[in-house]
Amino acid sequence: MDYLVEKTEDQNVLRLSGDWTVSRAAELKDILINLLLEYEPFQLDMTDVSSMDLSCLQVLRSAYLTYEKNGNELILIGDPPDEIQKFIGETGFHKHDWLLGYR
Fold first, then answer.
1. Thinking of the domain 20-99, which architecture would CATH place it in?
2. 3-class SS at 5?
3. 19 SS3 class
């Protein structure tokens, strides 16, 4: 499994690891929808993500906007690997408020 949901009294964390590319975008969307229904707010940790493509970044952005619209928060924690941060910068997604720290 390339993701883990950790729930404690004071926080809920989704930890992604491995490859998150177009072949897994629908799976990521389903995970995020289920989390939206079960937890509010929650944190996303991409520290152990080895690759990600534009389709999954778009899913994450959509999830962020959906959570915000519903009064929930999707908070990024940890630092993804440099390659992922570089990719986020190249795509222009780092200009969005929820990814400002990743360039």
1. 2-Layer Sandwich (3.30)
2. strand
3. strand
